[in-house]
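To: structure desk
From: M.T.
Subject: fold request, one chain
Message: Could you run this one when you get a chance? Sequence is below, nothing fancy, just the single chain.
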Amino acid sequence: GYPFRDEKLLEAALTRTMHLNDIHDKESGFMDPLATVGDAVLGTAVVCRLYEGEGGRKTSEYLTTVRSSRVNRNKTRAAAEKIGRDGYVKWGKGERKKEIWTEGDKAFDTAFEALIGAVFLDAKRNGSDGLAVVDQVLDRIHFF
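Reply: Done. Structure tokens follow.
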């Protein structure tokens, strides 16, 4: 539900390193660095939502504990599956053959975080509040 202005960011968010290795492409972007951005943005979005919206104690311990329970691989994998990321990810040949997405949560977790990082950067680069846009996207997919 987010219209990307920079298609290269979206492409990078959907591309695994192994795919680029398979096609001998050393120039294109890939999801890992975007996943690092996305992880930080996702954590920030959740903590802000907790701080602003939930009642109860708002100590740093509370925020950290609840954030950890809401931002984890199970949750991000479920969100990625809900929006159909498996049909869009450019997997490496070996990854496709092994169906690595069935071997745990890491592959989809990385893909989801990369998408969040790409949304954040695309919005920010185009003059919008990247965190607010990510918050809206997370609301649309019922992440919170």
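Reply (cont.): The chain has eight helices and no strands. Let me know if you need anything else for the meeting.
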